[in-house]
Design a protein that fits this description.
rod-shaped
Length: about 160
């Protein structure tokens, strides 16, 4: 058996592919799962934004049933709007995003003075604002990457126009 010199061992490339794969594979898996996790985050963020927009639009079209026209004065309509945000229906349903509940949805109806009739409508106009913010427990790969789990949050405002 012939002895190999150090230079011949150094120039041997027979196992270089295995060593390169061993070094690169963890980075590729981290990149792949990171992209997968971020795509899930953006998908869930879109679902939350759609739900909040739907809730604000729903409540902006509700007949408040009182003289002042404030849509937030009707607790039933507000509860239905909160449920629309989370589930897409006025009652029951499953959440669009796991971990999102009706308790995470806040709806307010601030008013602004329109006595100068700068805008078409009554002298008092209400703006329906729906907001939410919560941590999605299903986004767990962020912690493996050394990142904190992000909050899913959204806000949307609509002018209350009453029933059409």
């Amino acid at each position: 058996m012939r002895k190999r010199s150090i230079t011949s061992v150094w120039n041997d490339t027979g196992g270089s592919v295995l060593i390169e794969a061993t070094l690169v594979t963890p980075f590729l898996f981290t990149l792949m799962f990171g992209l997968f996790e971020f795509s899930w985050y953006f998908h869930k963020q879109q679902l939350v934004e759609s739900g909040i927009r739907d809730a604000a639009r729903y409540l902006a079209r509700v007949n408040a049933g009182n003289e002042d026209g404030n849509p937030c004065s009707d607790a039933t309509s507000v509860a239905q709007a909160q449920n629309i945000a989370v589930t897409g229906v006025t009652s029951g349903g499953t959440p669009r995003v796991p971990g999102w509940s009706v308790g995470n949805v806040t709806i307010s109806c601030p008013s602004f003075d329109n006595t100068g009739l700068s805008y078409a409508g009554a002298t008092t106009i209400y703006r329906v604002t729906a907001t939410t913010s919560f941590t999605d427990p299903a986004l767990g790969f962020f912690t493996l990457l050394g990142l904190s789990t992000p909050n899913l949050s959204a806000s949307h405002s609509e002018r209350s126009i009453g029933p059409g």
